[in-house]
Amino acid sequence: MLHMGKYEAVIGLEIHAQLSTESKLFCGDETRFGAAPNTHVSPITLGHPGTLPKTNTKAIEYAIKMGLACGCEIAKENYFARKNYFYPDLPKGYQISQHTTPICIGGQVMIKTNEGEKKIQLNRIHLEEDAGKSIHDISPTDTLIDLNRAGTPLIEMVTEPCIHSAEDAFLYVTEVRKLVRWLGVCDGNMEEGSLRCDANISIRLKGDATLGTKVEVKNLNSIRNIKKAIEYEIERLIHLKETGGNIIQQTRSFDANNDTTFSIRDKEDANDYRYFPDPDLAPFHLTNEYISHIQATLPILPNQLKKDWSNSFGLSIYDIEQLCEHKDEADFFLELTKQTKHYKTAANWMMGPIREYLNENSLQYANLTKAIPYLVELFDMVEEGQLNFSVASNKVFKGIMENPQSPRAYATKNNLIQTQSTETIEIWVEEVLAANPDKVAEYKKGKKGLIGLFVGEVKKKSKGKADPKTTTQILEQKLSS
Ligand code: ADP
Ligand code: MG
To answer: CA 20 to 30 Å from 280, out of 63, 163, 258, 352?
Structure first.
């Protein structure tokens, strides 16, 4: 029996996020995923002698955006350094990175856990270029190299060792992915490697202030795997400790086939990367004006929307979180609220029929922009009792999506408008009561629950056109006389 409860896990995460720029960090080569191997490799990417790199300002802008969204301090004086090492998919023999001057310093990401909100403290966010890709699973005898990815801009986000469970690590990465997508700085696509995570893990006795020896699990490419790898490592380290084993600093890899990790190498003392400022790249200075300008272009963040929407629209936190999962959805909701005051109705329609329609037809919110005035008209008709929800969502909504037009015109043409006319409803009510004398007698003896049955019958008879509120009123009146 392991004494899990004696120990505390300590975790620090390094996330590499590929920036969604069109070209690479220091040259014009395209960054698009999925191109034929080695087609986006100019002499600059290959590091040929005499080539001159030039910094992509869009990448700097994106890194600053992420930094500002996380409350980081933005460094004014920056330079790029060469990190020297040899690797087959690193054609230059060095990686251009930021060594002592990360562009964003400190900052935090908030996560929402079962134990309440927690702050994940960042150490830094820095810019660097990606390496190429070594491919081991195509040829049985050779390693193939694709250099398309070499030189692609990355930000590396490094947390302090302040995470204490696999679950919190999972929530943190989920939040970071949502944030990069929200800002539009990275597509967050883990399967394609746009977002990758290294997890550093150690254990210590609860109450200890010093950090234990860490292991690093490299290149985790799904959020689920991050959680599994950390869970596995925590248990393995505690088991080692409890059975008198020695924890050594190691680099490990995750085996998704059996949810375990295995050692790739014991960490040499300290790598000697012989960092020095890249002599081909001028240091860059960021002015306050430039940083404020980027700040002004930041979209409102989900946490702010939570406050705004609960204040001005009176929506529940649950509804707001649902609508703020994706920026296009939140933007669409905001557009709707500019044209209707039925906020809760709009939210319900978005989380119900509209989402369903988009999923079924593989469409995006952008495809619905032109329909906004019609949707707003539809919500009003439901709120005013001219359409019941089921007719509105199953018939009118589908009708006006297929053939964009005013829902009022469509409903009128197809004879779907709900009637509130007392005379018309009275006739249906009389018919229903006449056809059900037994039930009427039971009702009069006190079985008041039967009112629902009568309303249902009137609804059927009217083909959904009798307004339920008016129907109920008329029924109650007739049955009490
Ligand atoms: P390295 O030089 O090995 O990359 P860093 O000090 O740069 O180490 O830290 C890398 C990541 O590892 C950071 O996220 C940091 O919070 C985390 N980390 C550092 N020491 C520990 C430790 N003892 N246990 C868990 N995480 C750690
Ligand atoms: Mg590291």
So the answer is: 63
Using a 6 Å cutoff on CB, does residue 200 contact ligand 1?
Answer: yes
**pLDDT at res. 467:** 83
Last residue of a domain, one of 271, 290, 309: 290
Ligand nearest to the CA of 218: 2
pLDDT digits (tens, 9 = 90+) for 285-309: 999 999 999 999 999 999 999 889 9
Residue 114 Cα, ligand 1 centroid: separation in angstroms? Answer: 26
Rounded alpha-carbon distances, angstroms, from residue 179 to 209, 428, 469? 32, 55, 45
Could you tell me if 215 and 324 lie in one domain? Answer: no
The reply to whether ligand 1 has any atom less than 6 angstroms from the CB of 464 is no
Starting from the CA of residue 172, give the closest ligand. Answer: 1
Same structural domain, 244 and 304: no
pTM: 0.86
Angle between the 57-69 and 166-183 helix axes, to the nearest 10 degrees?
130
61-92: pLDDT as tens digits: 999 999 999 999 999 999 999 999 998 999 99
Task: Please state, in angstroms and rounded to a whole number, the distance separating the CA atoms of residues 15 and 356.
Answer: 33
Q: How close is the Cα of 348 to the center of ligand 2, in Å?
A: 45
Q: Domain limits at 372?
A: 300-413
Q: What residues are paired with 284 via a beta bridge? A: 78
Going from the Cα of 251 to the center of ligand 1, the distance in angstroms, rounded, reads 12
